[in-house]
C-alpha cells in the first residue's frame, strides 16, 4: 500500500506546485508573514489547492523537520480529469454510475464511502478541490485500499461537475431530506450521478437548485439523520438492487 507523503518547506512546496504535483492539502502556519510565504499563498489559491491555517504545534506534529511554516500532503494517487473519465466510461458502459461528494470533510467517512463505492461498481468519485477531505493514511486505511481501485476527480466547483454530467446525459440525483420523494421512487437504472452532502450541512442549496431529481431515505426513528457514509451505502445498494432486478428480467 502506498504511504502518504509529506513535503515541508516554503520553497520545496512552491516548486512542487509549479511542477504540477498532486498536492492534496497544504497546512500553513497562522500569522506567518514574509515574501516567500505570500508567494506560496498566492500560488496555492491560483491553483485551487485545498489549504488551511493551523498553529505551529500542528505543523510540528506533522513533521520533525524544519517546515518553515508550511507542510504539504502529496496525494498517494493520481487524480483523473472529469471529461476524460466520463468519456472513457461512456465508451464501455451504457449506464455509468458516478458519485459526487459535496464538501465531505471527514477522512474516515470519505474512506468508508470509497470502499462501498468500489464494491457497488461506481465508475468514479468527484470531489471539490477546496474544502474536501484529503486522501491521507486514515482515508486509505478506512477504504481498505479501495482508493487505489476507483478513479477520483477533483473539480474547481461541484456545480461544474453537475453541469458536465447533465450535458453528458447523465442524471444527477441529490440525496437530501428536502424532498418528499424516497430513493425507492427514483429510477436509478439509467446513467446516474448521485450527490451526497457534507456531514453537517448536507447538499448545498446552490447544488440542489441544479440537480435533476432529489431523494431521501425514509426515517422511522427519533434521530433525524444517518451518518453520510451509511446513507451513501443505502443509496448505492438501491442502485445495485434496481439494476440487478432489471438484468434478471432481460
Amino- and carboxy-terminal Cα gap? 40 Å
Order of helices and strands: EHEHEHEHEHEHEHEEHEH
The class by helix and strand makeup works out as alpha/beta
CATH class of the largest domain: Alpha Beta
Strand arrangement in the largest pleated sheet? 7-6-5-9-8-10
User: What does the overall shape look like?
Assistant: elongated
CATH architecture of the largest domain: 3-Layer(aba) Sandwich
- Count every beta strand, where a strand is a DSSP E run of 2 or more residues: 10
Counted by DSSP, the helix tally is 9
Q: State the fourth-level CATH superfamily of the largest domain.
A: SPOUT methyltransferase, trefoil knot domain
Unreliable spans = none
Task: Please give the radius of gyration in angstroms.
Answer: 19 Å
Q: What number is the mean pLDDT?
A: 91
Strand content: 15-25%
Helical fraction: 25-40%
Q: How is the CATH topology of the largest domain named?
A: Alpha/beta knot
Structure notes:
It is a single chain. This protein is 38% helix and 19% strand. Helix 1 runs parallel beside helix 2 and helix 5 (107-119) runs parallel beside helix 9. The chain starts with a strand and ends with a helix. By secondary structure, it is an alpha/beta fold. Strand 2 (23-29), helix 2 and strand 3 (51-54) form a beta-alpha-beta unit. The chain has helices at residues 10-18, 35-47, 56-62, 82-92, 107-119, 137-142, 158-167, 205-208, 228-249; strands at 5-8, 23-29, 51-54, 70-74, 97-101, 124-128, 152-155, 171-175, 192-196, 213-215. It contains nine helices and ten strands. The strands form two sheets. It has a six-stranded parallel sheet with strand order 7-6-5-9-8-10, with helices on both faces. A four-stranded mixed sheet has the order 1-4-2-3.
